[in-house]
Amino acid sequence: VPTSDSAPATAAPPRLRRDARANQDKIIAAARNVYRRSGLDVSMEEIASEAGVGLATVHRRFSREQLVEAVFAERAREFLALAQDCLTQPDKWNAFVSYLEGLCVMHAEDRCTSDVLTLRLPRSPLLGDLRDQLYYAQLELIQQAQAHGDLRPDFAAEDVILILLAIGGVISATAGTAPESWRRVFALIVSSLRAERADELPAPPQADDLLAALAKPRAGRRPSGLPAS
Amino acid sequence: VPTSDSAPATAAPPRLRRDARANQDKIIAAARNVYRRSGLDVSMEEIASEAGVGLATVHRRFSREQLVEAVFAERAREFLALAQDCLTQPDKWNAFVSYLEGLCVMHAEDRCTSDVLTLRLPRSPLLGDLRDQLYYAQLELIQQAQAHGDLRPDFAAEDVILILLAIGGVISATAGTAPESWRRVFALIVSSLRAERADELPAPPQADDLLAALAKPRAGRRPSGLPAS
Fold it and tell me: What is the pLDDT of residues A158-203, one digit of tens each?
């Protein structure tokens, strides 16, 4: 991500740098809105227009790649904040369920950028690092809930992704007029996650296979900003 | 659906009528393949080419609308056969679970035409009738399993659709390299459906709201053959 004082001058007066920073934030927020509405295959013109700045201003601050990365990095930090917040909860089952539910709520609000979670997303060192942090925070939530005997012992990190994909399937079909429908399916799934109810399950997908499946962009939703790998 | 002896003559010789019927079946099978691969927004040329017949032959037998209707009617009959087959099973819980699982398997094999189930689909008297039959067969499966105390009493017909949407979300993301992933989520959901485990759930969506949500075509998957209502 370009910093506010990267492009034109290191000696710019403070007010100019503040303006540049404000423009940058405005462009990122606008990009996020446009991505949410229309997916990642949008023109820089649409983003400039949403931000109320000229196209040249957008191009001066961001390449297409950098803009996608900036939006997804912001999103990844929100997921990470959720996980860290849940880790402070004393009850480890509630902490785990709050995390899962929080993910689903965030997914319901903005399906486009939650691809950062399912890895259906461009790779970049910044995003990779954030994703690693998220992965370990999530693993801790899972392991704590299992250590306390609340969460079924065969629950795997891959299941978080599978559950989010399932909830996403409900959300994307019902968002129009029955937007709370996903909560019923979520409640069903959560009730089956308690350790004392653990029937035998089919094995989770191999992590590599799951990631490969997800890395393959779906028709019409291909992140066009960054290279696929 | 046009019948084989509709167009040219009532007095056509038997062999000609047999040929016409064979052509018609070939065209329906080809349309189904093309829809499965590319969705419903495909040209009649693509379907003719897949069927190995001329475009004029396709146009002589089917309008775009009739072809979509014929393919979906075939699919609806398959779902109905599944439901009726499950109704003959003596164990009512197994019958219900077999039905749900069968729907998911058929959905995994061909997501396009399973829109017939979620009603995200053109209306026609023929399809409406098949859908009613399917609805009542499914209701009987649900009520039998509830009457035997196996299925949670708050399970609603709408839940079948919600579950299929959830499984569809997993399938559409993982079909590439982890195509069995949905079975794990399915097993989780089923294990939460047993009556003795029934936690309180959020209410199901109002049937009208759910149908309205589903009737609204999703981007890129609009059935273009028939009018939306």
Answer: 899 899 989 988 988 888 778 889 999 999 999 899 887 766 777 7
Which three-class secondary structure string do you get for chain A?
Answer: CCCCCCCCCCCCCHHHHHHHHHHHHHHHHHHHHHHHHHCCCCCHHHHHHHHCCCHHHHHHHCCHHHHHHHHHHHHHHHHHHHHHHHHCCCCHHHHHHHHHHHHHHHHHHCCCCCHHHHCCCCCCHHHHHHHHHHHHHHHHHHHHHHHCCCECCCCCHHHHHHHHHHHHHHHHHHCCCCCCHHHHHHHHHHHCCEHHHCCCCCCCCCHHHHHHHHHCCCCCCCCCCCCCC
| Beta bridge pairs of residue B194 | B151
- Mutation target for B interface from A170, A189, A210: give the one with most B CBs within 10 A: A170
Cβ contacts of A181 on chain B, cutoff 8 Å: 162, 204-205, 210, 213
DSSP one-letter code for B53: S
The residues of chain B scoring below 50 in pLDDT are 1-9, 216-229
Query: In the structure encoding, which two tokens stand for residue B189, read together?
Result: 């959901």
Look at the block and give the residue holding tokens 């503040």: A18
Task: Give B 11-40 residues with CB within 8 A of chain A.
Answer: none
What's the complex ipTM? 0.79
Q: Which residues of B touch A189 (CB under 8 A)?
A: 185, 188-189, 192
How far apart are alpha carbons A17 and A166 in whole angstroms? 45
A170 → closest Cβ in B162, B203, B206: B162
How many other C-beta atoms can be found within 10 angstroms of the C-beta atom of residue A126?
14
Structure token digits, residue A56: 């040249």
Q: Which of residues 176-215 of A touch B (CB under 8 A)?
A: 176-178, 180-181, 183-185, 187-189, 191-193, 197, 199, 201-206, 209-210, 212-214
Cβ distance of A162 and B181 shorter than 8 Å? yes
Q: Which pLDDT score is estimated for B121?
A: 57
Q: What is the pTM (predicted TM-score) of this model?
A: 0.80
Torsion of CA B137, B138, B139, B145, to 10 degrees: 110
Cα separations (Å) of A90 from A145, B5, B172?
A: 11, 74, 37
Candidate from A184, A212, A213 with C-beta closest to B204: A184
The answer to whether the CB atoms of A213 and B181 lie below 8 A apart is: yes
> Count of alpha carbons within 13 Å of A152, Cβ hemisphere only?
19
